[in-house]
Automatic annotation (TrEMBL):
Domain of life assignment: Eukaryota
Main location: cytoplasm
Name this protein carries in UniProt: Bifunctional UDP-N-acetylglucosamine 2-epimerase/N-acetylmannosamine kinase
Biological pathway: Amino-sugar metabolism; N-acetylneuraminate biosynthesis
Organism from which the protein derives: Herpetotheres cachinnans
Keyword hit for RNA-binding: no
Enzyme Commission number(s) from the entry: 2.7.1.60, 3.2.1.183
Length: 752
């Protein structure tokens, strides 16, 4: 039967309440920059029910901040056609004042009608835009109506903000979408792939905002305890959740005949499958009338298992697809929004080819009979998949409003294109527009556990430090607690976390994110999977590597090693670690044991090392070794000299040994010179093995060792390597910065 219940009044979407609370913040200086507290006059033009679901959250946000914006709403296209539900009414019910209604659809059943509709819109729009004089027009998507809007605004020197550019699908929509991209001055995209496509299309990456899909702001917070009443209203009193189907299929304008045939097969399969089904009418496109005739020919409007409707309000449509047993068709809603609920989807034909999809989507690219579609229904119906957030995290609208406020109307209107395409070493940081792209960095050392928010430029935005617990369980609990706290704080400090990088002592398999083995320096720290629990807790990708390797990566990205092909980093702290960069690449070795430089043996009968061997560099030169020697001197009353004092309960440390040496304690000075010599001999071995052009000493003891290392090189090294540069790192936190670079290098598509 054909259902057209009156659209019930419903309160404005949740965003209006949210933005009234959010609107008292910041950005007044941006308005002052635009002159005399000028409010940004924004024209939002909506053409159909689908684009309104994406534009409405933005409109609520704009409306809720009248001190920054003036909103004008223009309605055109299928919103004003009775056959498609007169959907302009839902805009009125959302309490928006419609400034202008434009009848722009030319009735017809072929491609020419679409062309004529574009032409009619181009004739009518100039008068409207002359009257409104907007500062910026917001255009959504890839419909032919949107192309008319963008063309009119561009020719009339009105700035254009395009929503959902850079995406890929399988019809003429692709060409229209990319044409609008070329006309638009600013871009809001939903996925990182779309962002990369825009950059590859030579769009200025400073004018691209990766925000997510605005509709996800509604989807991810949609909670309706009374969803059963919605289901019953549209599908009947006897329907249960997960026991019905939502079908939404549109003509493919580049192959109308085939798409009509596919629709016939879909209806045949649905009839055979014998489940209650809600069928929505197709979009206004060439071929839509023929699809309606197919529905009527097969008796869908009068079939007891089917409900055919022209329009469902978006709030109610969300509940219907969220609790459906399956959605079938070729609507972008199926591959985008429905993934937020984990509802199974069967995507038919080529209309969405190229779209990013979650695992809930099963594709039926082609079908000669109903059997393939019927089999897909049998496979998918009633399943429940993990929820997907490919297209958004629920915070798109705040980002878009911030983006709008950042627009400087005094900037030249003429677009600038970035030729050639963006190189992979150009920063994608647009922190003056959206959140600073950042990493969550974790440094797990022998003494402390530190977590930091690190920006793309290597700035430590926020840092947390705790003592490293002695047991595995306490240590892992503390890591998770500190990471969750830092991730929550990232929102407050305007940072977007791209992933988590973990720097840890011990031998690490970075491919699996597992600590294979650690010395006594970190107890209970062998065969530990760090990636899984951290990723599960934060829902972010996680990278793990040894702290010495991380120090080398930090130097490569932020420090002395930037642009150097071959260099070695030694990190001197509680232990001794290192990392080797060879031909710009980090060396891990066949069993991930490369660059364990602290365990190079420099004496066969030297002191015992924490690794169990004797005479390692670490046994002489690490913080623990110096502390051991300081305690020996203190026990013999040979540590303290004039100018030093210690409280009774104070623990003797390496710092006391260094202080004593500086104040003339010859025994303390001798110990430090021995430690420096041991480190220098290790460096000489490295020079003779790897022949780097640069050696970087990092960590708290580096400045005390650098001269000793240079002296040993001059005395012991072959003449061909004596010219090597030995420098002290200028990075304050190399392990944290290296952990961050694990994330930042990967997420910006650089090689690691």
């Amino acid at each position: 039967m054909l259902l057209l219940p009156p659209t019930p009044p419903h309160p404005p979407l949740f965003q209006e309440v949210y933005f009234k609370n959010h609107s008292k913040q910041k950005q007044k200086e941006v308005m002052e920059k635009n002159g005399n507290n000028h409010k940004l006059r924004v024209c939002v033009a909506t053409c159909n029910r689908a684009d309104y679901s994406k534009l409405a959250p933005i409109m609520f946000g704009i409306k809720a901040e009248p001190q920054f914006f003036e909103l004008d709403v223009v309605v055109l296209g299928s919103h004003l056609i009775d056959d498609y539900g007169n959907t302009y009414r839902m805009i009125e019910q959302d309490d928006f004042d419609i400034h202008t209604r434009l009848h722009t659809i030319v009735r017809g059943e072929d491609e020419a009608a679409m062309v004529e509709s574009v032409g009619l819109a181009l004739v009518k729009l100039p008068d409207v835009l002359n009257r409104l004089k907007p500062d910026i027009m917001i255009v959504h998507g890839d419909r032919f109506d949107a192309l008319a809007l963008a063309t009119s605004a561009a020719l009339m020197n009105i700035r254009i903000l395009h929503i959902e550019g850079g995406e890929v699908s399988g019809t003429i929509d692709d060409s229209i979408r990319h044409a609008i991209t070329k006309l638009a001055h600013y871009h809001v995209c939903c996925t990182r792939s779309a962002e990369q496509h825009l950059i590859a299309m030579c769009e200025d990456h400073d004018r691209i905002l990766l925000a997510g899909c605005p509709s996800y702001d509604k989807l991810l917070s949609a909670k309706n305890k009374d969803y059963m009443s919605i289901i019953r209203m549209w599908l009947g009193e006897d329907v249960k959740t997960r026991d019905y189907i939502v079908a939404l299929q549109h003509p493919v304008t580049t192959d109308i005949k085939h798409s009509i045939k596919m629709f016939e097969l879909t209806l045949d399969a649905l009839i055979s499958f014998n489940k209650r089904t809600l069928v929505l009418f197709p979009n206004v496109d060439a071929g839509d009338k023929e699809m309606v005739r197919v529905m009527r020919k097969k008796g869908i409007e009068h079939h007891p298992n089917f409900r055919a409707v022209k329009h469902v309000p978006f709030d109610q449509f969300i509940q219907l697809v969220a609790h459906a047993g399956c959605m079938i068709g070729n609507s972008s809603c199926g591959v985008r929004e429905v993934g937020a609920f984990g509802t199974p989807v069967i995507n038919l034909g080529t209309r969405q080819t190229g779209r990013e999809t979650g695992e809930n989507v099963l594709h039926v690219r082609d079908a000669d009979t109903q059997d393939k579609i019927l089999h897909a229904l049998q496979l998918q119906f009633g399943k429940q998949y993990p929820c997907s957030k490919i297209y958004g995290d629920g915070n798109a609208v705040p980002r878009i409003l911030k983006f709008l406020k950042s627009i400087d109307l005094k900037e030249p209107l003429q677009k600038k294109f970035c030729f050639p395409p963006v190189k992979d070493n150009i920063s994608q940081d647009i922190d003056h527009i959206l959140e600073t792209q950042s990493a969550l960095a974790v440094d797990l050392g022998g003494t402390n556990l530190r977590v930091a928010i690190v920006s793309m430029k290597g700035e430590i935005v926020k840092k947390y430090t705790q003592l490293n617990p002695k047991t595995y369980e306490d240590r892992l609990d503390l890591i998770l607690k500190m990471c969750v706290e830092a991730a929550s704080e990232a929102v407050n400090v305007n940072c977007r976390i791209l992933g988590v990088g973990i720097s840890t002592g011990g031998r690490v398999n970075p491919r699996e994110g597992v600590v294979l083995h650690s010395t006594k320096l970190i107890q209970e720290w062998s065969s530990v999977d760090l990636r899984t629990p951290v990723s599960d807790a934060l829902h972010l990708p996680v990278w793990v590597d040894n702290d010495g390797n991380c120090a080398a990566l930090a130097e490569r990205k932020f420090g002395h090693g930037k642009g150097i092909e071959n260099f070695v980093t030694l990190i001197t702290g509680t232990g001794i670690g290192g990392g080797i960069i060879h031909q710009h690449e980090l060396i891990h070795g066949s069993s991930f044991c490369a660059a364990e430089l602290g365990h190079i043996v420099v004496s066969l009968d030297g002191p015992e090392c924490l690794c169990g061997s004797q005479g390692c560099i670490e046994a002489y030169a690490c913080g623990i070794a110096l502390q051991r020697e300081a305690k020996k001197l203190h026990d013999e009353d040979l540590l303290l000299v004039e100018g030093m004092s210690m409280k009774k309960e104070e623990v003797v440390s390496a710092a006391h040994l260094i202080q004593a040496a500086k104040l003339g304690n010859t025994k303390a000075d001798s110990i430090l010179r021995t430690a420096g010599t041991a480190l220098g001999l290790g460096v000489v071995n490295i020079l003779h093995t790897m022949n780097p052009s640069l050696v970087i000493l990092s960590g708290v003891l580096a400045s005390h060792y650098v001269n000793a290392v240079k002296d040993v090189i001059n005395r012991q090294a072959l003449s061909s390597v004596k010219t090597v540069d030995v420098v002290v790192s200028n990075l304050a936190d190399p392990a944290l910065l290296g952990a961050a670079s694990l994330v930042l290098d990967y997420t910006t598509r650089r090689i690691y």
